[in-house]
Amino acid sequence: MSETVSERLAALSPSETLAMSQKSAELKAQGIDVINMSVGEPDFFTPEHIKTAAKKAIDDNFSFYSPVPGYMDLRKAIAGKLKRENGLDYAPEQIVVSNGAKQSVCNALLCIIDKGDEVIIPTPAWVSYMEMVKLAEGTNVLVNAGIEQDFKITPEQLEKNITPRTKALILCSPSNPTGSVYSAEELAALAKVLVKHPRVIIIADEIYEHINYVGGHASIAAYPEIKERVALINGVSKAYAMTGWRIGFMAAPLWLAKACNKLQGQYTSGPSSIAQKASVEAFNGPQECVQEMCEAFRRRRDLIVSLAKEIPGFKVNIPHGAFYIFPEVSYYFGKSDGERTISNAADLAMYLLEKGHVAAVGGAAFGAPEYLRFSYATSDENIKEAMTRVKETLANLK
Ligand code: PMP
Ligand code: GLU
């Protein structure tokens, strides 16, 4: 029997964030005390009131297929959240609930991209965007925004990269992997450019909305001139510590919501009924938990930034949201401990994992090969111990 996978699959890179996390788990299983700062997920447990709602949903026999775009009460709860927190008007029919924000982004791309359509992705960017564009047979147009510009693209950069083939822009704020946050003014300036290009759909990934240390969240969907072209993506994973429940959503113009509904109807159906009922409680229930977790992340951000700045050769930007630091580490390229020479950030991440037992992710998968990503969604003790190990391990490289 032929064991040849499709060209589409062969061209796909595995998720580097999940791969590093897997390696870290393997070392842990061998009894090695690894501190895993590779995968980005809150280390908190899902709040009690949300778990109670899920248990009730089981007892109430929510065990049947749900409507493909999600239960109406969940879509109403999401529309309520968008109005209350973001001042945005969406009808429940414009909302499609999926298996995590990951599927929502992929759905949107599969529904709008034809072969060869260009998708502008400001880099550094989350590892999966580029691979999803490849799956949709689109062309990635990576627009680099380095540490010197706080990892944010300028309106001029955006304008310069729009061509007649541009079909979409993926904008992530607060950003994974950099933690940068676009202000309302910066978004307004980007929106001004986009107004001139009516073919371009804006995929706004706002999954880190609530992990923001500079105050109110600004959404690019708030600009009425372009709102009809925004696919707003969000979910419960990060704000409510619900990564394993797999609930995300897209709020979009009706035509796009209908398209995602059709797509989802053929390859996943609606997401888990129990997780949906838990998510209704997440959006409608008490919100103090969100604030408390954000405060904890802010404290950890301050801690890790102060410790990382002490590490020779690390150029550290101050992240204003999400839970990652993304230092520039090219100082170590070409250095050796006498046995091993570090050529790039992937080598450095592997060196830190094997010698220092700290798992981070090399920047290449984020389109930024001179950087390393550390997730600080872990305890203060782990952060202190990890940064000590990193500093000591890197001191061996001359
Ligand atoms: N977008 C970004 C930027 C992310 O970091 C993540 C987390 N993996 C996702 C989307 C997907 O989140 P979810 O767990 O809801 O699929
Ligand atoms: N958002 C997380 C990360 O970037 C989860 C893993 C993933 O889906 O990529 O690490």
UniProtKB/TrEMBL annotation:
<dbReference type="GO" id="GO:0030170">
    <property type="term" value="F:pyridoxal phosphate binding"/>
</dbReference>
<keyword id="KW-0808">Transferase</keyword>
<dbReference type="InterPro" id="IPR050596">
    <property type="entry name" value="AspAT/PAT-like"/>
</dbReference>
<dbReference type="GO" id="GO:0008483">
    <property type="term" value="F:transaminase activity"/>
</dbReference>
<dbReference type="Pfam" id="PF00155">
    <property type="entry name" value="Aminotran_1_2"/>
</dbReference>
<dbReference type="GO" id="GO:0006520">
    <property type="term" value="P:amino acid metabolic process"/>
</dbReference>
<keyword id="KW-0663">Pyridoxal phosphate</keyword>
<dbReference type="InterPro" id="IPR004838">
    <property type="entry name" value="NHTrfase_class1_PyrdxlP-BS"/>
</dbReference>
<dbReference type="InterPro" id="IPR015422">
    <property type="entry name" value="PyrdxlP-dep_Trfase_small"/>
</dbReference>
<feature type="domain" description="Aminotransferase class I/classII large">
    <location>
        <begin position="33"/>
        <end position="389"/>
    </location>
</feature>
<dbReference type="InterPro" id="IPR004839">
    <property type="entry name" value="Aminotransferase_I/II_large"/>
</dbReference>
<keyword id="KW-0032">Aminotransferase</keyword>
<dbReference type="InterPro" id="IPR015424">
    <property type="entry name" value="PyrdxlP-dep_Trfase"/>
</dbReference>
<dbReference type="InterPro" id="IPR015421">
    <property type="entry name" value="PyrdxlP-dep_Trfase_major"/>
</dbReference>
<protein>
    <recommendedName>
        <fullName>Aminotransferase</fullName>
        <ecNumber>2.6.1.-</ecNumber>
    </recommendedName>
</protein>
<comment type="similarity">
    <text>Belongs to the class-I pyridoxal-phosphate-dependent aminotransferase family.</text>
</comment>
